[in-house]
Every structure is written in C-alpha cells, then in structure tokens.
Amino acid sequence: xxxxxxxxxxxxxxxxxxxxxxxxxxxxxxxxxxxxxxxxxxxxxxxxxxxxxxxxxxxxxxxxxxxxxxxxxxxxxxxxxxxxxxxxxxxxxxxxxxxxxxxxxxxxxxxxxxxxxxxxxxxxxxxxxxxxxxxxxxxxxxxxxxxxxxxxxxxxxxxxxxxxxxxxxxxxxxxxxxxxxxxxxxxxxxxxxxxxxxxxxxxxxxxxxxxxxxxxxxxxxxxxxxxxxxxxxxxxxxxxxxxxxxxxxxxxxxxxxxxxxxxxxxxxxxxxxxxxxxxxxxxxxxxx
Length: 288
Prior knowledge:
Layout: H1 7-10, E1 12-14, H2 20-32, H3 40-61, H4 71-95, H5 101-126, H6 131-155, E2 157-159, H7 167-184, E3 191-195, E4 198-202, H8 204-287
Parallel strand pairs: 1-2
Antiparallel strand pairs: 3-4
C-alpha cells in the first residue's frame, strides 16, 4: 500500500538556535564545496557512525579512570562527526534541490532514536553517571522527541529548537563537559542513600545527569500542557464554526422545505379551484 502523504514537505521549520548565525553559513559553505559523489544519505550514515564512535568511547572510559582518559577526546570527536553528518545531510539535499521530505523526515528521526540510545547507554557504561540514571535521562529525552514529532504532525510546524537550544548547543555543551572531566575527573561518591537497605552511591556526574533528566521531564510536561491547551482552543473554535455552519444549513433547508410546502399547497388549491370550476361548468351544461 502506498502512502501519498506529503505533509512533511509543507511543514514549517523553526530553527532559531543560539549558534545559528555561525552554523548556517558554515553548513552552506560545506554544501557548496561538497564533492559531487557525496550525497545526503552518506552524510546521514556518517552522522550515525559519529554517534557510535562517541558511545563506544564512553564505554571505553569505564575501563579506567575518567581523569586524563584520552577516550574523552575521542568522544568529543564522535560528537563533531555526528554534528557534521546529521546537520549537513538535509542542508545538502536542499542545496542540490534533491529534497525527499517524507523519506528524510522519517529516516533522520528514526536514526535520532538509535543515536540517543547509543549515547546515553555509553554514558551509563562510562562511570560518569550510574547506568540506571542514564536510562532515566534517555527515557525523558525520548519523551521530548515524541512530543516534538506529535506537535509537528498536528500543527505542521517542526520545532528544531527549544528556548534557543538545539542539538548543536547540546553537543557543544557535552564537548565542554568532556574537556572539564579530562582535567578534573568525576571523583567519588558525594552522596549515598539507602534504598531497601542497599547503599546507593551518587557521584557528581550521576547527580547532574539526574537533574538533566528531571529538567527534560518538566519541559516535556510543560510543552504537553501548553500545546494541548492551544490545540483545544483551536479545535473548540473550529467546532463552533462547524456547528454554526451546520445550523445555517439546517435553517436554509427548513426555509427551502417551507417554500416547497407553500408552493405545493398553492398548486393543490389551484387544482382544487380548477376541478371546482370544471364541475360547475358541467352542472350548468347538464342543466341546459
């Protein structure tokens, strides 16, 4: 069965990121100077390979000390590669007028889900944060992604950023954190709590990732409530318009039916008068 939905082609894109004035010219430069044999699919795969490199490198950090671990630099390199492929694939397709909106939208965001799993799992295996807390952050991040895709479907606006922060800013923030960790390390437990009699130790990394997860969740709930409120108002307005239109149709139909009834009544009266006249004439004829 084929799907001829071209909705993504007409979707409005908003990408007002903080680094936009620097990123957009850079992407246009790369698109103009990209060799002809390189296509957007290759860049998409390159972005995925960058995330795999970052996730693998995070896992390798867990085999030794965080402080002074060279794998942190490889992680940052993976994020740079991921940025290059993930940000440039769509730009290159648009520059060459080779857009495939449905395919591109679906493939890009399906891969985003895999990328998110790889990165957060790597963080959990790195020793920077507890694995269970990293998975909590992943779940909250995926909720945000789902909210964006649902909002795009119902509003026709694809919001690539939130409060000026997009994937590019997030990557840069993580690269800065990796650099700090290289020189400072993660340290030991700074807080230990008992859960069912078992000690539950938290490093500064675990606490930061947990706070980030809660921030994701709070922002998700805010966006859901805000978007649902706007959509409810819009649907209510449409419903009122539809009811008013249906009421006008009913009123018009009733008037039309009333006119038809009056016309039919007049025709019956005319026929009755004609019959009466004919009878009277027949009576007069018989009388003569």
